[in-house]
Amino acid sequence: MRPDQAPTLLLVHGAWHGAWCWEEKFAPRLRELGHTVATMDLPGHGGSGGARIPWFSVRQYVDAVQAEMARLGGPCVVVGHSMGGFVVQKLMERRPANLAGAGLVAAAPPFGVNGVVRHLLVQRPWDLLRASLTANLYHLVREPEMARALFYSHTMTDEEAADYWARLQNESFRAFLDMLVLDLPKPRKVAAGLPRWVVGGGQDQIFPPQVVQRTAAAYRCKARIYPDMAHNLMLDHGWARVAEDLSRWVSTTPMEPHLPARETA
User: Fold this and answer.
1) How do residues 152-181 score in pLDDT, each as one tens digit?
2) Edge-to-edge strand ranges of the sheet holding 223-226
3) Looking at the predicted structure, is the pLDDT value of residue 210 above 70?
4) What was the pLDDT predicted at 257?
5) How far apart are CA 258 and CA 40, in angstroms?
6) I need a surface site. Which of 108, 169, 199, 216 has the fewest CB within 10 A?
7) What is the DSSP letter of 231?
8) Is the pLDDT of residue 262 over 80?
9) Would you place residue 51 in the very low, low, confident or very high pLDDT band (cuts 50, 70, 90)?
10) Mean of the pLDDT values across residues 191-196?
């Protein structure tokens, strides 16, 4: 790819988060490394959710990302974290014309989030029941220590974890159902030549290493695991290594968006 066609990196956040989680540290570092970087709030996030937030679908999230790609123009490498990684997988199926590469960061797997449900049934059954009965997933992160246990390694300070917790919000219950069973990705629909980058954290309690490795296998690539990091790889201590590895991958991988856009059912 010619230097003037270097792709824009579009970073997509996960559940309960917003563009802020990338802009805190990760996106500025990528810009320092010479990349053009865009972040976005998915529908209902960044203070615009209101009462509608429980009912946004994964498809609506994918529509929003594809619209942002069209607005940006030119080749894009789209990188998604957690639920955002699930959204990116659904985007990969659509083969938008300017998709040059895809990154999955501690991504929800293509075979669904049933493992998360089992974990919560064992560790926090009443919180899961309350969240399900009220269609309010904020119950799962409503206290700082809950979010800390889900997202961060032991190296994260209490002060940092509390600061990030204060920015969390409710998440779509419909999107959760989509990730559980209603709208699972179909890796076989993804173009074989599309560059992909899959990483995860060795201390991740949501999508542990074996899940990340199964995700990578589904997309015919290898995963990199950061042994001392947890779920929020863009904020947990060690985030700079992840940013620099992404930069290196983008800079050294041939990326030529040439696939035609395809209608989806």
Assistant:
1) 999 999 999 999 999 999 999 999 999 999
2) 37-40, 8-12, 76-81, 99-105, 196-201, 223-226
3) yes
4) 63
5) 24
6) 169
7) S
8) no
9) low
10) 94
Q: Which residues pair with 37 in a beta bridge?
A: 9
Q: How many residues does the chain have?
A: 265
The tokens describing 210, both together, are 């074996």
Instruction: Say if residue 231 is exposed, middle or buried (CB neighbours under 10 Å; 0-12, 13-18, 19+).
Output: buried
Over the chain, what is the mean pLDDT?
92
67: Cα separation from own chain's centroid: 17
Long-range contacts formed by 180-183: CB under 8 A, 24+ apart: 180/112, 180/113, 180/114, 180/117, 181/112, 183/57, 183/58, 183/59, 183/90
Across 224-231, average pLDDT: 98
pLDDT greater than 50 at residue 265: no
Return the closest-CA partner of residue 88 out of 76, 99, 96, 80.
Answer: 80
236 within 8 A of 152, measured Cβ to Cβ: yes
Whether 257 contacts 99, CB under 8 Å: yes
| Residue 81: strand, helix, or coil | strand
Task: Give one DSSP letter per residue of 139-184, joined into a string.
Answer: GGSSSHHHHHHHH--TTS-HHHHHHHHTT-----HHHHHIIIIIT-
Q: Which residues contact 183 (CB under 8 A, 6 or more apart)?
A: 57, 58, 59, 90
Radius of gyration, alpha carbons of the chain: 17
Cα separations in angstroms, 155 against 219, 238, 251: 31, 10, 30
State residue 3's pLDDT score. 47
Q: Residue 53: what pLDDT?
A: 85
CB atoms within 10 A of CB 60: 17
